[in-house]
Structures
1.
Amino acid sequence: MAVNPFTSLLFASLLLLGPVAGTGACRKSAASVTKSQWSSLNSTVDGRLVSVVPSALWCQQRGGCTDAEWSSARFRLSNIPGAMDSYNYEQAYDGVGLVCLRNNTANCAKANVPLYSVEAQTVADVQAAVKFAAAHDIRLVVKSSGHDFLGRSTAADSLMIRMKNFKTVTFVNNFKGASTSMGSAVTVGPGLGTGDLYQLAKAAGKVLVIGSAATVAAAGGYVQGAGHSILSRKFGLAADNAIQFQVVVASGQLLTVNSQSNSDLFWAIRGGGAGSWGVIVSATFRTYGTFNSTIFVQTYATTSHQVAADLMQLHASHIFDYEATRTCQYFFLQKANVTAIPILTLYTIAINQTTPQTTALLAPFQGKALAISGVTLTSNVQLTSDTNDLVFFADDISGIDLITGSRLIPKETYQNRVSKIGPAYKTLLDVGTLNILGHLVAGGQVAANSGISSAVHPGWRTALVHLLMENPWTDGATITEQNHVATLWNDKQLAAIQKMTGDDSPGAAYSNEAAQVEKHPEETFFGPNYAKLKSIKTKYDPKGLFIVRNGVGSDDWNAQGTCRLH
Ligand SMILES: Cc1cc2nc3c(=O)[nH]c(=O)nc-3n(C[C@H](O)[C@H](O)[C@H](O)COP(=O)(O)OP(=O)(O)OC[C@H]3O[C@@H](n4cnc5c(N)ncnc54)[C@H](O)[C@@H]3O)c2cc1C
Ligand SMILES: *[C@@H]1O[C@H](CO)[C@@H](O)[C@H](O)[C@H]1NC(C)=O
Ligand SMILES: *[C@@H]1O[C@H](CO)[C@@H](O)[C@H](O)[C@H]1NC(C)=O
Ligand SMILES: *[C@@H]1O[C@H](CO)[C@@H](O)[C@H](O)[C@H]1NC(C)=O
Ligand SMILES: *[C@@H]1O[C@H](CO)[C@@H](O)[C@H](O)[C@H]1NC(C)=O
Ligand SMILES: *[C@@H]1O[C@H](CO)[C@@H](O)[C@H](O)[C@H]1NC(C)=O
């Protein structure tokens, strides 16, 4: 029988950490809570307690899901409490490849999904669920969109609080939070996805720093991780623009969290990592008057890994062309499959610039790119509109098997080590990387905000680029193919990136788009802030109710977050 590769990773972490069952330090199983106790919680939350099954089983019980439904984040979010975007996180990899698939639901009972979910509508629902999990000493998880790339919004044998119904949004001209005059701001619930928020902002004549997706929860995991945006080089990170949170903490209390009130938690929640602090029921972000920007989406075809690497080196040598205008650019080098030829897609979002200005901005790179033998420009779509129109995703891709790995690439690499960048791309392609996603979202105001006191990893302030590997596989992939994907980040990709930056220390990574198998998560995700974060965590969550994989305090728990190690 085939051995699933993720098992070796899981086993490795279990061996490293050592199981402690029997020491009395484990939580109780949610399944051991009695029917009448659940039923009493259900009454408290007005019947909004639902059973959770993995999405494959949900579809089967319904009589099937179409491919369009299966792969739609919006469909899964509105209908399937147990759904994760990266479907692999719903799996309990068990050593023999017995996973829960769309066309084979035999093993779905063991899946890595909660037992029950409180489909919260009110703050009181959230408080009831938090108190219930604490009183019964069971594993608790919080989910808004289920986008998480580290699988932090699902856990087996747990109670979930799902926040998708918290869709309130209020724009005000003068927010009164810590002071009486905090200026133009918007307060949003974590159920509101970025796609809807952009359109509401447009209607209000505002812009704000949020992500590039239809359904990512601005007030959920996104802002707690730091939150990058097409506007971050202009206005800073989402965490830099967050001015207040309403949070239900482990005691069940609803706290107002801002620079005056619970200011230590305010420091921690802005960058200290998703899911570790409490349940955010709303977040308030600064807003700015809206303006037009221009997006160019250009596709460059190549003919080989070497040509693609030469193109990326040229790209790196022009990356400072976009500095003065604080232009954002996503530069995605992708292959449809291992044998396909790489294609570069450049999404250039020129903030407050016109089409002719954007053409001029890109001309130096474009001229030299087309002079490389084998490089052709195959499409060039241009749009100038209200900035809120430029993130136009109607939906997000979901229901896929995907793991990620990333690093924040220092500005210094692009200043002094450009000759190392082409070879790094060549290696990344040669080892089988399909998606090398460059995000020019740092520098500019992200760097200028280095004086803000928050838990944002200081690596963000000296970075220029967030470089993300997306490593997918399909349900039909062979064990050899899966093994390749599971080991790519730690065995091959990270080394290629470290050779490029010339830094073999763990470096800094954006915790929201990173590797679950990261070897030094405390240092890589939180850097010098870890010790302070941990003491704040202990103050607000002394018993570790909010434990997520690779989050603050998770080093005290086993990989499942069910047993305390120390
Ligand atoms: C298509 C796509 C596009 C993306 N684009 C961007 C981008 O442009 N910029 C960017 O910075 N990131 C982006 N991301 C990454 C995104 O920031 C992370 O996936 C983030 O974890 C999403 O948060 P969420 O709450 O929507 O997801 P969830 O999976 O619901 O939650 C993620 C984490 O946050 C916790 N959490 C969720 N809600 C709450 C809450 N209300 N209170 C407390 N904890 C909560 C969960 O427990 C979990 O740990 C993108 C992801 C996807 C899939
Ligand atoms: C909770 O109560 C509602 C309404 O009475 C009911 O429909 C639902 O099945 C109950 N949930 C569980 C998990 O029993
Ligand atoms: C790989 O991708 C290319 C380009 O999209 C396609 O033509 C080819 O058929 C694919 N090969 C396989 C094995 O899927
Ligand atoms: C946009 O550009 C105009 C004209 O150059 C300038 O007056 C305005 O302040 C800019 N707006 C922003 C938000 O930068
Ligand atoms: C913004 O772009 C829209 C759409 O292209 C255009 O109609 C409008 O005049 C522009 N507004 C400004 C202030 O340039
Ligand atoms: C399972 O079903 C999907 C969708 O119908 C199909 O693409 C896939 O090949 C099947 N997988 C296996 C292992 O049969």
2.
Amino acid sequence: MSYQSLPDRLAEVRDRIAAACARAGRAPSEVTVVAVTKTHPGDAVRAALQSGLVDVGENRVQELEEKVAEVGREAARWHLIGSLQRNKARRALPLFDLLHSLDSLRLARKLSDEAAEAGIQVRALVQVNSSGEQSKSGLEPESLVDALGEICALPGLRVEGLMTMAPLTDDERVLRATFGRVRELRDDAARQVPGFAPLHLSMGMSNDYEVAVEEGSTLVRLGTVLFGERER
Ligand SMILES: *Cc1c(COP(=O)(O)O)cnc(C)c1O
């Protein structure tokens, strides 16, 4: 497969991010595009890097492992954006720079233990279930502050912010309310949780990244809009 249209697609995405930033009074430099290459071959990662992208996201450990082996651990900043099973924590640890999907206290403890053993700190974002959908993972907003308090006290973790996935909808009001709520949760938690100094809000995918940027996202996770539809 070739990714010839990627530079044009990326240029359009960057224009749209810049416009969303302008509407919100933000600087475009505050927003990083994470190229989500899941289901695409290593060529997609290479094309992304050639287009000037640095950050690459995968949602499964197995696929992350394959892409890292193919392209090189140092060739990109690797993001693990999908749920991580505790029994894969050790294997995943050396493969990513930032975990977006820290979604339970048990996973946090496991990662912290593994990191401490390896003599490193894991950088992670805590995933919030902002839509309340049963099918979505993440910590519940109601218990976020308490959970963050425990997670941020773990020695092997460095919690750098929050991540969320909006419900699948084109209703801009719903999207805006969802992202805005997570931004407020971040601000509340930053005031209340010692050791929580959030740098990042990972919000926005192909269908909703402009609203997410308007609502304060610093990391947009984009697959389809850059690489085309995935085969199912
Ligand atoms: C697949 C995926 C994305 C990218 O989705 P697109 O709609 O293709 O941009 C973003 N975040 C997560 C967690 C994903 O699994």
3.
Amino acid sequence: MTAEPPVKAVIETICSPITDKSGVNLRVLRLDQCCPDLSGNKWFKLKYNLSEAREQGFSRILSFGGCYSNHLHALALAGKRQGFETIAIIRGEQPAPLNETLQDAVDAGMQLHFVSRSVYRRRYDHDFLTSLEQQFCSVYIVPEGGNNLLGAKGCSEILQPYFDESFDIVALPCGTGNTLAGVAASLPGQARALGVAVLKGESFLNKDVKGLLTALNVSDYQNWQIDYRFHTGGYAKCSKELAHFVKTFSCTYFPIEPIYSGKLFFGLFEMIKAGEFVRGTELLAIHTGGMKGLRGMQAGLDRLTS
Ligand SMILES: *Cc1c(COP(=O)(O)O)cnc(C)c1O
């Protein structure tokens, strides 16, 4: 029973005075739209985690995330499609009422358990995981974000249906770099992957991406890089400038959100304006989704742009 969502997404061209002037061809793979309930990169990160759980005979899956987690949302919906019970360990207090991300998860049958930040911090701790296995008797545990080797393996399939398109650079937002690693591992020929980091820091993801590439048997791949300039303050931090950019971009082209796709396109537009891509570059950006989470952020964004 693998009721997989359809994964062929459309590719759209962005025409703007900025791309015209620089001679860069910017196209966007609309993963945010490939399926109404299971869009974005998170399904790809779950795909092999779910098949592994099934092979090991589990019918219940547990994972971790925050209140706006795109990962938990995708797990709830994918679990429902594939007949798994799903359990979420969520950082912090239960919001009342539930936000739309969590309400969707509950509607899909997910059990929510809210834990304090200090308990949540133990999510990689072996003893804590063992106690969860006992508490929920026989659960398959997927790490936060679906960030493991099986997650990256699933992401190596994101671009497969589009290998007949020509692209020199594939750009995508990076939280942990797991998606980037999968994409880089799959790239044909001379194409390169460019990640835009959404968290503040300097080169902290490079080691993790290298580790995943080694585990995916392409340890010699140097076809990727991460740009750390466009976090605008840190994870889920949104500057006024970014808020304005997201609003204008969403009106002109298609909806983006400020956490991932907003920073990706903000960064790309800055790089294109600064002439960082040679004329004639075929740039393919991946819209990794996350539009469900935006529902809870709209009011804050409106305040920043009013
Ligand atoms: C989780 C997420 C990412 C980041 O994926 P990583 O594999 O952690 O780098 C990017 N975009 C969206 C919309 C996400 O939900």
4.
Amino acid sequence: MFKGLVRKTIPLVAFGVGIAGFPRDWRAGHPQDTKLLHINEEVLRQIQSTKEYKQLESNKSLRQYNSSNAFPGQHHNNYVGTGLLFGPDLFEIDPIVFIDEEKGELTSFYHLGDKLISQDGQIHNGVVSTILDEGLCAAGFPLLPAKKGVTAKLLIDFKNQAPPQSTVVLRAKVKEAKGRKVVIGGYLETLPLDDNKAEKPLLIAESTCILVQPKWFKYFTWLQI
Ligand SMILES: *[C@@H]1O[C@H](CO)[C@@H](O)[C@H](O)[C@H]1NC(C)=O
Ligand SMILES: *[C@@H]1O[C@H](CO)[C@@H](O)[C@H](O)[C@H]1NC(C)=O
């Protein structure tokens, strides 16, 4: 019986260690952070020229973050995000994030390069999961009493695979905030870059995230994945 328990617990503990960095204030930023090595300026310009970007930028109730510091620090190293896989052909720009911290609404833009693909030549679902996890958490953190927490549950419904060289947009919104628990819903879709073209966004995945602020941050054993 003990053996069974151990076997079951190992992946959970591993995950728990991975998120143990969360309690750091994700907005604090880290001045010593390395500069970005590569930014695809053209993609950046294309995103900035969309009607949606301009609306978000002029919206006074939103804060904008450009840097990888917009997300909890630990994610940079352990997940795809802007740590290991940032660079030419991976994530070609830092995520551009707009957040309404009072309402828990977040819109963020990413560009996915050529090397984030799986064997079928499409963007890997792990990348999609990472974006959803980070983005939904970021939308939910400000509504937790301590402004920090851990992912208790992340449900992802994959709809379509994103083609390589996609510019994608994540839209996340807090659906319920009650004490130490926040439920966030969101979806990831491609961003048609030319506002004049009748190109339709392609829905990549929908997701629900349950974020909690544990009473005892040390104990992660209750985590469900
Ligand atoms: C983000 O980048 C845009 C354009 O590059 C700039 O106008 C804006 O001030 C930056 N915002 C922050 C918070 O760095
Ligand atoms: C600004 O953004 C918020 C989303 O948080 C939205 O509810 C509001 O309608 C926006 N305002 C304008 C003028 O677009």
